[in-house]
Every structure is written in structure tokens, then in C-alpha cells.
UniProtKB/TrEMBL annotation:
Segments forming domain Acyl-protein synthetase LuxE: 79-384
Domain of life: Bacteria
Record carries keyword Ligase: yes
Keyword Transmembrane helix: no
Species for this entry: Streptomyces lunalinharesii
InterPro entries documented for this protein: ANL_N_sf, LuxE
MF-aspect GO terms: ligase activity
Name of the protein: Long-chain-fatty-acid--CoA ligase
Keywords: Ligase
Length: 389
């Protein structure tokens, strides 16, 4: 068995039996009444787990259930915590000595979401990623690749979730060579965008002939392609089984954002990577369940989670197609009561059959960041490195 798909055991197999069964489902886009019933049972176990260990969450459960129930399912309670809550408070449902990993969401300044994971939580989230990679055939242990990572170069002081995730994604295919776009400056958490190094890497990789995997913030890839055009560098032909997997959005650099179709067309035109091998993703340190675009570039909801959209004024659940706050629900997390989180992103939710791909689960579209805040995400901090380039 691939080590990334190996079994992982919940902290309490009796109290979290349904959570275990749900997270053990091998097919990431399973649908049907049995999956829905299992999800509801797992959420009930998750609520009981956190209520026993977190006074905060126990108080949230004292509120009356929502009527009408949100679109995540009539049997599923969804007490709400906003993602911004974790920028101001540290809350744990496990003893601190059981914290296996501590990650943050922001850049070098500003308030940070402080998220703590026990071994089960982070391993379960990683296995979800592996299941989706396996579903799309992206686990290639016998095929070395070259990596260009548009994320933060690791350093002892850097606990950023994006850096952790992108480096984990390098485990699915052996690395011949790796280039980081955001180079550590050698002091603290400082980084600098090395656009020339990215261009040089792409040119070397095109000559090398191995598949190339480009991971990370889309704004930096876009800027690299812009610089190549302005420098008169002709299009490159990377191997067709190369892969572009983006994440983090264009937050903080909206003035340079272009339409997704135009961006993907530019990647295909300048790097030779076919559109079906270019995918965007969505995720956060507050909610580590991976959302990966299908071949038609829709962010389908995997079996281990549910999504809803809520009115920005009343927080009431909205029907398909209406824009509002994205609300994500999953019982996988045991370390922090973050199993029902309202994100800071505006989105619209759509039924599975509104996408022409073979997946039946609902999907969502990210419409932008809600409001204006002094809080900064990884992408906001990263985008600031583009200034003056």
C-alpha cells in the first residue's frame, strides 16, 4: 500500500467510530444516502468530542438548532465559528502535549490564525489529499519530476500552512530538482520573490525533459509568465504530463488578477501544459480538507466534508447559486473545535449535476474576499512581495 494511503487511527475508536469510518472511505467523491447518514453520525460524534473538552464549544451547542437546517443536511448541527476567531483565540480540545503540529495562516506581520493539530487530525487531512491525488492519477512513485514551488521556502522560523502543504505535495512524485520562488532571506521569516530564478528553472526544466510540477500561488506564476513575455523569451514546451496545482488565490493583488480562463490559456500557450493538467485548489489552516478542481475546473466537495453558503447579513443558509459567506463542515478535526467554520471568502454553491464532469458532489465558486481587513493571509503577504517587481 502507498504510505500516504495507509490507515490512521482516531484518538478514541469507540467515541469516534463513525469519524473513523467516514475518513476511511477510499473514494473521495462518494455520494448517496449511506454516505450522508455516516456523515451525520460522524458530525454528532465530533460535536460530543469537542463539547466534552471545550467549554467554548459546549456553550455553542446550547444554542437551539437552526431552522431551517443548512444545506449540509437536516440531521447535522452546525454551530458557527468564524475563521477570524482563530486569529484572536487559541482553543484546544486535546492536551497541549498532544499537539503534533502548529501552523499559522498569515505572513510576516498581522494577526495569525493559530491552528494546532494532533497526529490524527493532520494525518487524516494528508490522507484526504492523497486520496484525491490517487483519484486523478497524480501519485507517481516511479516517475521523477522537477518542482517549481510558488510558496515560501522552508526555514526553522516559518510555520506557514502554505509552505507545509506545498512541500507535502512533493511527496507524491520523487523530486529530481526543486526550486522555491519565495526564497528565505536568511533572517527570521523574511522572503523575497526570485522571478529570475523561476524563469531560469523553467528553461532548465524544459531542456531536462522530465515532467514538471508547479505548485503554489497563482499570482506569482502569472507574474513569471508576464516577465517572460516582456523579456522576449519564446514559449517553452514542458512535458504534457506536467501538472500545475495552484492555491492561495490572488488576495492582496486583485488589480493584477485576470480571468481564470485567460490565465489557464496563458499557461498552456507559454508552457505547453494542457488545460486539464492545470487545477486550482481551495483550503486553509482552519479547515484542512482539500478542495481540488475537476477537469472542468469546479471545486467539488469531497465525501469527508459538506459546504453551505450563508447570507452576509443574517448568516442564514442560502440556496444554490446565491452568493454569501462560504461555510465548511467536517468532523475530521479532533484537536480544535473547528469542525464548522464560516470562512472569510464569498462563494456560491452549485449542485453536482450543474458540472459536466463525472463527479456528483456539489461544487462551489470563490467570488472574492469579504470586506476589508487589516488581517493578512499567506497570499496577501506573498502578493506584497510583487510590489516594485
Amino acid at each position: 500500500m502507498n504510505p500516504h494511503l495507509a490507515p490512521v487511527e482516531v484518538p478514541d475508536p469507540t467515541a469516534l467510530a463513525s469519524v473513523q469510518r467516514l475518513c476511511d472511505l477510499p473514494s473521495p467523491y462518494t455520494t448517496g444516502p449511506e454516505a450522508d447518514a455516516l456523515f451525520a453520525d460522524a458530525m454528532a460524534e465530533s460535536h460530543a468530542w469537542h463539547a466534552d473538552r471545550s467549554p467554548l464549544f459546549r456553550a455553542l451547542l446550547d444554542d437551539a438548532p437552526e431552522v431551517p437546517a443548512p444545506t449540509v443536511g437536516a440531521r447535522t448541527r452546525t454551530p458557527l465559528l468564524h475563521a477570524n476567531f482563530f486569529k484572536r483565540h487559541e482553543v484546544l480540545s486535546v492536551p497541549r502535549e498532544e499537539v503534533f503540529l502548529h501552523l499559522t495562516s498569515s505572513g510576516t506581520t498581522g494577526q495569525k490564525s493559530q491552528m494546532f493539530y494532533d497526529r490524527w487530525t493532520i494525518r487524516a487531512a494528508q490522507r484526504m489529499v492523497a486520496r484525491i491525488f490517487d483519484h486523478y492519477g497524480w501519485i507517481t512513485p516511479d516517475q521523477p519530476v522537477n518542482y517549481l514551488l510558488y510558496s515560501y521556502e522552508p526555514a526553522p522560523e516559518v510555520r506557514l500552512g502554505t509552505s507545509f502543504t506545498d512541500n507535502y505535495l512533493c511527496d507524491f512524485a520523487p523530486a529530481r530538482h526543486t526550486t522555491h520562488a519565495l526564497r528565505h532571506t536568511g533572517t527570521g521569516t523574511g522572503h523575497a520573490f526570485d522571478v529570475r530564478g523561476c524563469i531560469d528553472a523553467l528553461r532548465r526544466y524544459a531542456e531536462d525533459g522530465l515532467p514538471v510540477r508547479i505548485l503554489g500561488f497563482p499570482a506569482f506564476l502569472h507574474f513569471t509568465l508576464e516577465r517572460m513575455r516582456s523579456a522576449g523569451i519564446p514559449p517553452l514546451q514542458l512535458p504534457p504530463d506536467s501538472l500545475v496545482l495552484l492555491g492561495g488565490g490572488w488576495k492582496g493583488h486583485a488589480d493584477r488578477q485576470i480571468a481564470k480562463e485567460e490565465f489557464y490559456d496563458g499557461v498552456t500557450r507559454q508552457l505547453g501544459i494542457p488545460p486539464e493538467r492545470i487545477r486550482d485548489t481551495y483550503g486553509s489552516v482552519e479547515h484542512c480538507v482539500p478542495y481540488v478542481e475537476c477537469t472542468h475546473h469546479r471545486l467539488h466537495v469531497p465525501v469527508w466534508s459538506r459546504a453551505a453558503v450563508r447570507d452576509t447579513r443574517t448568516l442564514q443558509p442560502l440556496p444554490y447559486g446565491r452568493p454569501g459567506y462560504l461555510h465548511l463542515v467536517s468532523p475530521y478535526i479532533t484537536s480544535v473545535p473547528a469542525q464548522s467554520v464560516v470562512m472569510g471568502d464569498l462563494a456560491s454553491l452549485h449542485p453536482g449535476d450543474a458540472c459536466p464532469c463525472s463527479l456528483d458532489t456539489p461544487w462551489f465558486t470563490i467570488l472574492g474576499r469579504a470586506g476589508v481587513s487589516r488581517n493578512r493571509s499567506c497570499a496577501v503577504a506573498a502578493a506584497e512581495l510583487l510590489k516594485g517587481m
